[in-house]
């Protein structure tokens, strides 16, 4: 039996659909914070169990009987470590066979602030003694979706990633990788550095956006401080603006680049191309 946490989220839903396609008949449990929002998953034949990282007493029952648990990192950035600790302790008590954790690309050496909670979670998992698989996921190309309307309106995609190449992939690519390691007899206590096949600069992204939209969009590189100020000016909350500024600055130094192609080897197909990703983001 496989348990997927955070299953109402965008990645979780994709993983569950992929699991069902790969392994019909496999018992799958969707652990969700709000079962009333999981009727679509229930209609697929998945068992729904309530589990909230902030309510540790809910977690062990949600994981009971699992051969493997996919622990999808919480979206509560800055507050995740106690949440993940509660999930790992519950997994230990429930006697789960293995924990698969969605970490961050190069979490042990990444310059991104985001890496800290991920690497600390990896350390807790290793220390727990539960066999593990770390899926160190790179950037989602979908992260750029929210920037497209203003880029098209103003003819400018802003950022502070310089000429850093970013090896993004689609959520669906990362979801497929999770489904693969959850369903096959995978080696345990391993780390997968997962990223798109080809790294692209934000200038290349803007060029592709121009080509497909028919509107001229150029990439405007800014100082990190100015970029964060621009995001705040556009109404983004400070923690998110800081996170995006920090992540772009990390990307400028190669922090989101990887050329190992482990993701496409794992899923048995190329990761999403720049052309297909931009087309999907434009809804064309
Ligand atoms: N690599 C990247 O570029 C990138 C980008 C974005 C996110 N991420 C990470 O990847 C994770 C999955 O991404 P996603 O796109 O699926 O994010 P998402 O759509 O925001 O889903 C996050 C899920 O976590 C659940 N959650 C939040 N707090 C919880 C709690 N206290 N207890 C139980 N569940 C809780 C949410 O539940 P509700 O549905 O009840 O709100 C939601 O279903 C994120 O959480 C984040 O850690 C990575």
What does this molecule look like?
It is a single chain. The protein is an alpha/beta fold and 284 residues long. It has two domains: 2-137, 3-Layer(aba) Sandwich (Rossmann fold); 143-165 and 197-258 and 270-282, UDP-galactose 4-epimerase, domain 1 (Alpha-Beta Complex). It has twelve helices and nine strands. The strands form two sheets. A seven-stranded parallel beta sheet has the order 3-2-1-4-5-6-8, sandwiched between helices. The chain is globular and about 55 Å long. The chain starts with a strand and ends with a helix. The mean pLDDT is 97. Bound molecules: NADP nicotinamide-adenine-dinucleotide phosphate. NADP nicotinamide-adenine-dinucleotide phosphate (NAP) is lined by residues 6, 8-12, 33-34, 52-54, 72-76, 83, 102, 137, 139-140, 143.
Fraction of residues in helix: 40-55%
Q: Largest beta sheet, briefly?
A: 7 strands, parallel
Domain module tally: 2
Which geometry do the CA atoms define?
globular
Rg over CA atoms, rounded to whole Å, is 19 Å
From the coordinates shown, what is the CATH architecture of the largest domain?
3-Layer(aba) Sandwich
Ligands in the model, by name, code or SMILES, are: NADP nicotinamide-adenine-dinucleotide phosphate
The CATH C-level class name of the largest domain: Alpha Beta
| CATH homologous superfamily grouping of the largest domain | NAD(P)-binding Rossmann-like Domain
The count of β-strands is 9
Distance between the termini: 38 Å
**Major β-sheet strand ordering:** 3-2-1-4-5-6-8
Which residue ranges are poorly predicted, with pLDDT under 50 across at least 5 consecutive positions? none
Tally of DSSP helical segments:
12
């Amino acid at each position: 039996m496989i348990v997927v946490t955070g299953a109402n989220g965008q990645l979780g839903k994709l993983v569950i659909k992929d699991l069902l396609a790969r392994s019909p008949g496999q018992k799958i449990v969707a652990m969700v914070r709000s079962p009333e929002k999981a009727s679509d998953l229930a209609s697929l034949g998945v068992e729904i169990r309530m589990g909230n990282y902030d309510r540790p007493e809910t977690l062990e029952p949600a994981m009971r009987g699992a051969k493997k648990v996919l622990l999808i990192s919480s979206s509560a950035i800055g507050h995740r470590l106690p949440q993940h600790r509660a999930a790992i302790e519950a997994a230990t008590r429930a006697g789960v066979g293995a924990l698969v954790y969605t970490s961050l690309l190069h979490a042990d050496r990444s310059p991104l602030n985001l890496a800290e909670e991920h690497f600390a979670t990896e350390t807790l998992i290793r220390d727990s003694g539960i066999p593990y698989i770390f899926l160190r996921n790179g950037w989602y190309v979908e992260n750029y979706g929210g920037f497209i309307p203003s880029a098209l309106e103003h003819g400018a995609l802003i950022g502070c990633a310089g000429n850093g190449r970013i090896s993004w992939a689609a959520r669906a690519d990362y979801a497929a990788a999770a489904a693969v390691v959850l369903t096959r007899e995978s080696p345990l206590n391993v780390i997968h550095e997962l990223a798109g096949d080809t790294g692209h600069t934000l200038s290349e992204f803007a060029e592709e956006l121009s080509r497909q939209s028919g509107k001229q969009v150029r990439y405007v590189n800014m100082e990190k401080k100015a970029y964060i100020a621009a995001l705040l000016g556009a109404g983004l909350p400070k923690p998110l603006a800081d996170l995006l500024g920090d992540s772009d600055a990390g990307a400028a130094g190669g922090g989101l680049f990887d050329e190992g192609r482990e993701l496409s080897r794992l899923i048995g197909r190329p990761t999403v191309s720049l052309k297909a990703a931009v087309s999907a983001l434009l809804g064309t």
